[in-house]
Design goal:
By secondary structure, the chain is an alpha/beta fold. The chain is built from 14 helices and 14 strands. It is elongated. InterPro entries: Arginosuc_syn_C (IPR048268), Arginosuc_syn_N (IPR048267), Arginosuc_synth (IPR001518), Arginosuc_synth_CS (IPR018223), Arginosuc_synth_type_1_subfam (IPR023434), AS_cat/multimer_dom_body (IPR024074), Rossmann-like_a/b/a_fold (IPR014729).
Length: about 425
């Protein structure tokens, strides 16, 4: 008997990956299908996901629980950089894909699989992120991407195909057709009525992790987050690992409607797309981190780090997690975090994260210097000499302008030597 080749399928139990198993059987009957569900904090019943994969035709199912690894080795790297794509998107999906790819390759090696399959569409960023990451780890693995091959052209047709194969859709219908991606950092919503930018999002129908601003409490809540070298380590005095920290902040932030954005973004593949993102805990963390950095980083480092943070977000968004440039950025960012230690107090109120105080032994803010009173460390008279030197180029510029307009103010003669 000829041994079948194996394919590892990135499996979530959602619409796209659920129909891929019967489709692979119909079109690649000689492949042994191994489903791999990488748990990065999506709120799914993994037992049901496993059963669904088996009942759909998978020969084996791996469930890889990597939630804490996802937070501490991926999300926290971006947090230290203050990375946000186009100044809004906190990269929830983009951080998850390279870790998912890493686990898919590990399972493929364990099983001796020649192929990896995924359910990313041919219009999305994730196909690039997954396949680039896989190629960065093991370029010999071949990819099967059904959305780029089959004749299914819409989610409506995908639903019809699922129904023809008796696949349980778990509440997905042509009326509730949003495409969602969730992990412990965020949940994204795309498709349906959101595809028309003239439509206002129906947040009451869409939101999963968060209250609407209207339903958020009328009384604010104070929290304190302690950081050590740029990493959040305590919430309200309680030490928490990455997974528990983000889970706790998601709950608190979700209550107060924190971190909900409606974003029209520029995709990697060249088109614009619209999505609703809920990132309650991540929004709280990045705002707290920014406040603390403003307290402990000197001006030039802070300003240059803003530039690096923007480029860092672009690299992550654009599937370059395993690039040498990102590694170099990580080294720079880590060097800036040595003094980012302290505690930040925040007030959460109806979608807003308000600064409420902070303390750090590494603070560069000095009340004696910054106050209006004269102290020993700063003599206000010294400012006169500083201003004279600082303004010198602008004085010369103005004098030249006066000379050129005929209002002679100063004689400056330059000539070539013979």
């Amino acid at each position: 008997m000829v041994k079948k080749e194996k394919v590892v399928l990135a499996y979530s139990g959602g619409l796209d990956t659920s129909i891929i198993i019967p489709w692979l059987k119909d079109n690649y009957g000689d492949l042994d299908i191994i489903a791999c569900c990488v748990n990065v904090g999506q709120e799914d019943d993994m037992g049901q996901v496993r059963e669904k994969a088996i009942s759909s035709g998978a020969s084996k199912v791996y469930v890889e629980n990597v939630v804490n690894e996802f937070v501490e080795d991926y999300v926290y790297k971006g947090l230290k950089a203050n990375a946000s794509y186009e100044c809004k998107y906190l990269l929830g999906t983009a951080y998850a894909r390279p870790l998912i790819a890493k686990k898919l390759v590990e399972v493929a090696h364990k099983e001796g699989a020649k192929y990896i399959a995924h359910g990313c569409t041919g219009k999305g960023n994730d196909q690039v992120r997954l396949e680039t990451a896989i190629a960065s780890i093991d370029p010999t693995i071949e990819i099967i991407a059904p959305w780029r091959i089959w004749n299914i052209t819409s989610r409506e047709e995908a639903i019809d195909y699922a129904m023809s194969k008796n696949i349980n859709l778990n509440g997905i219908s042509k009326e509730k057709i949003y495409s969602r991606d969730q992990n412990i950092l965020h949940i994204s919503h795309e498709g349906g009525m959101l595809e028309n930018p003239a439509n206002e999002a129906d947040f009451d129908e869409i939101l999963v992790m968060s209250n609407t601003v209207e339903k958020a409490p009328d009384i604010g809540e104070y929290i304190e987050i302690e950081f050590k070298e740029g990493i959040p380590v305590k919430l309200n005095g309680k030490k928490l690992n990455g997974e528990k920290m983000l889970a706790a902040l998601n709950k608190i932030g979700g209550i107060h409607g924190i971190g909900v954005i409606d974003l029209l973004e520029n995709r990697l593949v060249g088109m614009k797309s619209r999505g609703i993102y809920e990132t309650p805990g991540g929004t709280i963390l990045i705002e707290a981190h920014k406040y603390l950095e403003s307290f402990v980083l000197e001006k030039e480092t802070a300003h240059f780090k803003d530039i690096i943070g923007q480029k860092y977000a672009e690299l992550v968004y654009n599937a370059m997690w395993f690039s040498g440039l990102k590694d170099a950025f990580d080294a720079f960012v880590d060097s800036t975090q040595k003094n980012v230690t302290g505690t930040v107090k925040l007030k959460l109120y109806k979608g807003n994260v308000k600064f409420a105080g902070m303390v750090s032994q590494n603070a560069l803010y000095n009340e004696e210097i910054s106050s209006f009173s004269t102290g020993d460390l700063y003599d206000q008279k010294d400012a006169s000499g500083f201003i004279n030197l600082y303004s010198l180029p602008y004085k010369i510029q103005a004098l030249n302008k006066l000379n050129n307009t005929g209002e002679k103010a100063i004689e400056i003669n330059y000539s070539f030597k013979e």
